[in-house]
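Q: What would this chain look like folded?
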Amino acid sequence: MNLALKIGGVPEHFNLPIKKAIFDGVFEAKNIHFNWLDFPKGTGAMIEALNENHINAAILLTEGAIKFLTQNPNYIFFDFIVTAPLYWGVFVSPNSSEQLTDFHKFAISRPGSGSHLMAYHFATTHNISEDLVFETVGDIESLADFVNRNPNYALLWEEFMTQKFVQAQLVKQIGVLPTPWASFCMVIRRDMAESFQDEIQLMRNLMHGIYYKFKQNATESIDYICKFYDLGWEDMKVWFDRTEWNDGYLDKNFSIAQLKICFDFLKQQGIITNQDFDNFIRDKTNLV
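A: My prediction, written as structure tokens:
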């Protein structure tokens, strides 16, 4: 029996190397069947799909993945995908005159999403003492429209994928918030990882090679991203230069350290409770 994955991911530039490889038949040639599903509503929507068994793997924001893994025993950490931070833009209505430190209300795609969890990092970074208020809206188009009409709300989203809404004057960007941890990782069903160990290792090696080639062929890759998502070349050059994918040269200690930074933050915020990091690493990863 061949390994068959129904894998979810956001339809953004971070995931284009793996999507291109699927389109090009890289995995099928090795009898690994990838069925990719786009999730415009992000990590929260993918977690819901994982919980309901609509997909069996996903590339998630690290903060959402850790929260999910502490709640669902059927999934484990597979690998980091993007090892660099994610730079979240802070977006508000063009009619808003408030400063960064004035915002404690946030429009989010759904609970458990990056737009939700990163609001806590935003509040910590800017010493915001008010209780955070969240309005669940949906995908990025709906979020931009909501923030446009509600000047007291802020939106956190990847800054370059949101520039078209800035150019359309639906929102304006007033800040940027990088994550203190590696930004994207993949989770997979535990039983699949245990039943297809050789295939999983082959898949991991293929993915590392795909990311290495994509990063090395910078001009070609940037051109492909710009055409695929209709994005500006200069913006994508900035984004590409600061983005690092996992090309297989990661030290396990790096992965453990990055998970711990994020785990500790979520625990400090009360987002995860009654959890021990050492137990998490032993039960949810193959890093020890």
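DSSP finds twelve helices and ten strands in the chain.
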